[in-house]
Write a structure and sequence with these properties.
This protein is 40% helix and 24% strand. By secondary structure, the chain is α/β, with parallel strands linked by helices. The protein has a single domain (3-192), classed as Rossmann fold. The strands form three sheets. Strands 7-6-5-8-9-10 form a six-stranded mixed β-sheet, with helices on both faces. The protein is globular.
Amino acid sequence: MGLSEMKQRLAEIVLESSFRYREDPPFTLVSGRTSPYYFDCKPTTLNPEGMNLIGGILFEMLNDTDVTAAGGLTLGADPIANALSVISFQRGRPIRSFIVRKDVKEHGMKKAIEGDVQAGERVLIIDDVITTGGSTLTAIEQARRFGLIVERVIALIDRQEGGREAIIEKGSVNRVDAILTRTEIMDLYRERSPVSAV
């Protein structure tokens, strides 16, 4: 299965399991904004087929990089990073996964980053959904504080609400990509919905 076919099938799973559209009342997002669109990515990122597709797509997207590890803010990034790690091992170029804690432990090593990563490594920061970019920026900050070099950012879904631009500007990251965008999911939603749909 090629990259475009994998993305198409993943978009179908997202539409079936992780996307909701409702104008009245709209959904309230983490940022406090309201929106008729809502993505709950966990039913996709924790689905065996979804994980396999996500890992394969990310691996292809990282072909031209020397990234050695991938991770992001727990909980949304964890299954995505783990999917990439498993697929990358199976394909002979292992990319380790790591977790960025929301709160630093107050005991033991008091680590913000969990996983087999070392300062100086080039890493990918992952997020499930980019809206304002806040959680991604937190992950970037913690990774850099740990000594990791943030090579690029990839999200499963870009809601196309300014988050990508905020990450580039505030996070000083040259490349921010998404596997799928809200527009792509909405186009598929319209295609699969009755004529009266948005």
